[in-house]
Prior knowledge:
The protein is built from 16 helices and 18 strands. It has 500 residues and is an alpha/beta fold.
Amino acid sequence: MKSSRRTLLQWLAAGTALGAVGRAEASEWIIPANPGHVGVSNLSAFFPFIPQGGWGSYGQPRKVLEIFLRGGASSWGSLWYDATLGGASGTKDLDTGTMTVAHWNEITGTLTPPNLVNNWNGFTLGRAAGPLSRIVGGRKLLNKTRIIRVRHDLIPHELAIPYSATGFTVGRPNMCGLGAAIWRRHGAGPLRSLIFQAGSRDNDVLAARYLASTGAHGPDLAPPIIPIGSKDFLPALLRSGFTEQGDTLKTFLRDRYAERLSFQGAPVRAGAFSQYDAALNTLLNRNMDLYNLLSPYDATLFTYNPSIVNYHHENKPRRAINTAISLLRDNVDLKHIAVVDGGVEDNYDTHNEEIIGGVTRSASFLQNGNQWNVFDSLANRTNDILDNGITVLVHTDFGRIEKTAGNTGTEHHPEGFASLVISDLITQQGFAGTIDPAAPEKAMYLDASHWFSPTDVQAAVASIAGIAPWQSDMLDVDLSGYSELLGTNPSSALDVLGIA
């Protein structure tokens, strides 16, 4: 579909449709050396808060590359490997019979399937996570990786996507993605955050909008959403053929609209107008900033041949991830990019096997292939990630499991799945959280009544991006419900990210 002024405006500030209308009073954005207490527990024992000046050789809060595996990624063949669970989940690895050597050859483009990662902190990682152990320049990402066993209780995508993408449940007024918070942290002015939407399904659009949501930070800080593979996007940014008179008319009508939303000379709170105003300002004032930033990557992001698709070289998520790393490496102003991974041939929502291009794809193939694609893309850029202060967060709606014997696909499984964080700051590789011994497909922490949530993951990553997550306009109320995790044994609380 050809981009129009209306569709371009929607892309540039789509996230504001989910944002709050006001801007909370500014609060402390540099993490203090002694963050103190929230509720009954000391969150400094729970999250790896880093004092000023303690950011390591890079010397400042970390940039963030977010990769959201949209549709619900199964962990059994990758980050939470278990041969028995893998066999029961419909996402079986080579070792349980569904994934053959030929399948892995097609995915990886080599004659040798990736290896299992054996005895990594006492556990095994599946072949889809194998690239994380690749040695590049004497280093491997796995030595700087923390895998967090996560759990929640929201079954529908429409509820799980916002929760996992933001750390807030639907209806929370402060719901925001990391992009808006990081943008505010570093100040208005240059573009600080982008959302790369590498998927075209409705729920990919939904995920991008939640990742771009602004909460209390103000709709003007909504990261623009960039549709990967859209040949019309860059030309539309140039706005060729638009006249100065046309822009004058737009601003005139906007100002008249604002006047009608005033009472006794003061503007009233109007979410829809705030969102429109922010989108129009982005269109009028940021279009050339975006064009200049993205045009060097035109052939990578927009005008390539979309009919050439494979897991190991040509696909939207791989192009988006590579471009995001290059931008974060080379552009001093950009601090955050989120990639919505809609899968290579299809997304992670594998309820059934599928016929794609005349070829039958099992849930195992799609899950393992999609995840291997992400981890291979990251491993190929090991040095760029570790040498340029880029923290990587990989997360998803929820996990998946086969609940009916003989089923060709998988069902939603929010009770146990995994998020992954890579950062040069991590000194203790391994897992955060554990497995319920009575139900090994479920995550727990300390005991079966407690577990890490998407809120905990979001707060941990925010902290090393330089944001204190207990602030009133961030996660404080939402975190207070999870602070009880430390109540029974705070001395043995596990730092989520393993930062000394």
